[in-house]
Structures are given as structure tokens and as C-alpha cells.
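Changelog note: in this version the structure field was regenerated for every chain. One regenerated record is shown below for reference.
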Amino acid sequence: MAASDLPPLRHIAIAELRRADIPTKKIHTDEDLVFWKTTRGYQDYGLFLRRLNESVVGYTLPWTEPPSEPAASILSMLDTLDHWIDEIPPLPTPQRFGNLAFRTWGRRLESETPSLLHTLLPSSLHPAIPFLSPYFATAFGSPVRMDYGTGHETSFALFLLCLSLLRYIEPNPVHERELVLSVFVRYLRLCWRLQDVYNLEPAGSHGVWGLDDSHFLGYIFGSAQLRDQTEYSVSAVLRPPLPLTNLYFMSIMRIHEVKHGPFHEHSSQLYSIATGVASWSKVNSGLFKMYEAEVLGKRVVVQHVFLGGLLDWSVSPDPTPSTPTPNTVPTLAPHRAALYPTSIPHTNSASALPATRVPWATTVSQASTPRSLTGSPFRTDGVHSGHWHGHGHGPIIAARMPLGPTASTALRPLDSTSGTSPRSLGNGVVSSIPPPAASKEHECARGEGGAH
């Protein structure tokens, strides 16, 4: 689907913003998380990511087109933050994670964000600065916890969404492509430098069972770049060095810079994709599902995201049923039903666990449980069935529930010849791997305190 085939992104006029709607942290309970997925802001974000995704299909890096004026201004602002790293060097005192100098850098960002946005925006958009500041100020890591994760990356994407809703950036394929291949690439390089210089801890890392310690969107956009080409197969990522012609390969090479050892041990999810997914199109669609489930669907991540104002906290006007019925998928509004076809059968399973499997996992049972009350803007098929629809290269076991960096690093396929008794992972997936010991207190501390 071309970017031009997607619905347009709505326009929010300055006059529509009310001081009472300045963004705040609204997700505190699981009920808040469920409600968020029904809001107009959530739908806007899903559509925005889809438009960015489709705009880069078939395009490569480096991006050499001259930047538009808005993009050039954003790039200049990111350059300013990069210069601050030179002005605030890391302290010589040893810390395992997080150099204390990052707190100085973070305080400077927090205090100077309004002035940076005042310089970035035309005077007509200055009243929107209080609605934009929370996203930009939280897009580069937490100076309190001295960590960085997918929640911070999401904050930057939401910042770009808000600029598009205000029409500072025109939401057309040309400018959206520029946002990904120029602005987002610059943002990634800045974040990588912050992580290296200040030794930032991965926020809420799933260890080897996560896709990446800190990032996610680069894999989505990169797989879109690779989607229609035939030169590189999905398994090409197992043969480094890779050309830096797309965000997916850039992200893989970044992993090789910061991690050592066999790739299948320290990056088992990416290895599973490389060995078990047949096409880049399936990688791209599956990563969207995984992003919605493992980033936007995890309260410990999105509880730190500011919502309201430009990211409308009210229920989306799209008519949707209040409760999905078994063997059906939610009914979508007419303009969205064309975008997200719902022809895939959906069955209910009373025994299914709420944990989300990776989309490319092969399961013993085909049963799954409806997970969303509304049609998701992130899904091309209207539902997340929990596995890839298509032919893979053999059974690949789904990741276990994340236990942090102490989890086992071995990728273990299902072994029908093993003499050990299989252990159920839920949703029909079984494993012969004995569960590692992990205290409930440890998991709670990691989830509530460090995930963003």
C-alpha cells in the first residue's frame, strides 16, 4: 500500500488547544492502558507511523536530498544537543551504568527545551510550545534513572507527530520520507552517542528476549525500506558486515558494535526473524504487531508517556463495538476497514495467557484471544493472531516472559526427542527448558522503576 493510499493525518489548529489539556502522564493502571487504545491520539499515532513506513519503501540511505526548511531546523536543534555532549564530558568516577554527567545534560535539556522550541517554531505556533515540550524533553533518556529505552524513542516519534498535526511539517510522502531518512537517522545517531558517552542503562530491557535493548522503530522503518527489493534476503543480516543502506542494517551493525559473542545468543529475537521469516514484507508487518504489543501495550513503558492536548485523550470517533465476539474481529469504520482488512478467522481460547508471543513464533495450537476492543491502526489484518501467516523455515519457539538481562541466552527450538518434560508457555506453546529462578520482587522492581 502506497503512502498516498492511506487516510490523511488530521490538522489541529492552534485555536483548538486549551490550556487545561496540556499533556500529563495519564496511564497509571491497566484500565488506563486499555482506554488509551480507544483514544483518538492512539489512532493518530498509528496512522502517522503507517504513513512514515510506507513513505520509505524502496528508498535507501544515505539520504542526499536537500532538507526542507522545517527538517533543516529540526536537524540544527539536534546538532545543538550533540554539542552539549562536548560541553558536558563524562565524569571520571566509575559507575557500572549511567555516568552522573548525564544528569547535568538532562537538566540542561529540560530547562532549555522551551527556548529551543521557540527558535524552531514560527511565532504563530508559539502557543503550542507547552504542548510539545514534554515530548521533546523526554525523548533522549531519563536523567533520573540514567537510562534510555523504547519509551523515549516513542516520545520523539510523538513529538514529530505533533509537529505534523500542527502542520509545521506537511504530512505528505515527500516530507514524511525526509522525517525518517534524515531527521530520525540523525536522532538515532545522537541517542547512540548519548548511550556510549554517558553509559546509559537500557530501560526495562528484556535481555536476550527483547528485540533490541533500546530501540525499535529503526527496525520497522528499515524493513519497509527493504520490503520490495530482492538483493538482500531476510537472512542476509547473519552475514555481516552489512551495507548501511537502510535503518534495519544500521541497527544490526550497531548491535555488533556494542555486543560481543554469537549473534544468536545475544540477539535471539533478531536471529529468529532472520532464520524463520520468509520475506521482508512479513518482517515489516510482524514488527508493527510486536511494537504495538511489546511497547505500546506494556504499561511499564507507556506510563511515562505524556498524553492529552495534541494527542487527544478522548475516545476516537470511529464507531466500534464495545465487545468483540468469538470467531469474529472488531468491526471497523468504513474508511479504516479498507485499510485494515479483517478476513483472518479469529477464535477464542479461555485458556490463553495474556502474555504476547512474538509474531513469527510457530505454535502448537492455532487458538488465540481477542486482545483489543478496537481495530488497531498498527495492524494490517485487524487482529494480532500471535504468529506469522505464511511459510517459515521450521518451528521457532516463542520468547519466554522477559526476565531481564539474567535470562538464558540460548535459542532453543522445540525438541520432540528430548527426554525432559515440556513446559507450557501459554497459547499452546511448549518448551522443554526449565524456568530460571527469578524473584517476584526483582521483576516488579525492574518493571515499575526502569522501563521507559
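Spot check on this record: The longest strand covers residues 423-426. Residues 319-356, 361-374, 381-451 have pLDDT under 50 and may be disordered.
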